[in-house]
Amino acid sequence: MEELSTVNACKNDFSLPGGSLEVDPLSPTVNHGWQLRNLPAMKWTAAPSDYFTLVLYDIGFTYLHALYVNIPGSNITKADTHSDKGLNKKPLETLHNESNFYDLKSISWVRVSADPFSIGRLEKEHQVNNCPLMNTPEALQHQDRPFLPHHFNLNMSVDVTYSPSAITFTSCCKTYAYRETSVELNPIGNMTVKTAHVRSSLFSSQQVLRGNVNDGVTVREYRGPQPSSGVHTYYFLLYLQSSRISPSVISNYTTSCTRCLFDINGFTTDHGLKLTGATWFRAEYDEYVRHQRVDESGKDEAAECAKEPQYPQSCSGVSIPHIIG
Hints:
Order of helices and strands: EEEEEEHEHHEEEEEEEHEHHE
Oligomer: single chain
InterPro entries: PEBP-like_sf
Number of helices: 6
Mean pLDDT: 83
Structural class: alpha+beta
C-alpha cells in the first residue's frame, strides 16, 4: 500500500501518494508533480574519461528543470550544476547550439500532469495562480445540480472576496456585534459563512483575464442570502457570451417577483452561454437572518425565535453584545 502524504496547497490539505516509480518512456502512465519533486537516481554506462551533459526539460512549458555539465562518466555527483540565471529564457535548441554538445547519446521521458503540489508551488512562488482551475472543476463535478451541464471545462477563475463593514443588530432580544472583516471564498472546503458577512455587494470579483463585474450591465443588483431553514448553497457562475444580451429578456425567465424560480437552464441555452468559471459558499439560517425577517420584513418575532434558547426570557434583562469576528 502506498504511503500518503499531506500537502497544503491553495488553502487546502490534500493527501497525495508516495512510493517509488521507475521511469519507462513506453508506459502510458501519467505521473504527478508530487511523485517527481526530488532528484531521481540516474545511471548509465560510460567510460570515466568521457564527460557528459544531462538536461531535464519540460517540453510543454520549455522549462529547464535541471542542467548538469562536466559529468565524468556516470558520476552525476561530480558534475557542475549550471546557474539558473537566464537559462529558462532560452529554447533548448539555442542552449544546445551555444554549448559544446556534439552527440546526443540517450533520451528518456516521463509524462506528468498537474497536481496540488505543483500548482500550489507555482502559486506560493507568485508565478501563476491556477488554484481555482485545479480545485473548482473537480469539486463541481461531484455536485448533482440540474443547472450544471453534463460536460464543462472551466478555464477561468472567479475569486470572490467580501469586505463587510462592522454591524450591530438585535435578534431575539440578543445583541450581536460583528467586527469588520474579510471573507475570501474557498469552495473546496464547502465553507459555511455567516450571512451578515455576505450581506452586501462589498465584494471584489476577479477573473484570470482581468474581467470586472462593474463593467457589465446590472440587471438584478446583489441581494444577500436569507435561507429560511437549513443550509443553502449559493453559486457564482461565470458564463462566456456568444453575443450581447438585452437586459429586458430576463423577465422571460422569472416569475412576477423578478427573481423567483429563475429558469437558468432556459436562459443559458437560449443565449448560447458557456460555463467557464464558478465558485460558491454555503450559508444557513442564523441570527442575522432572524433579524432581517423580523425587523425588516415584519415577520412574527415569537415564531422566528421559538427555537432560540432563553427566549423570551432574554427580553427582560440587559443584553450583553455577542462579539463575532
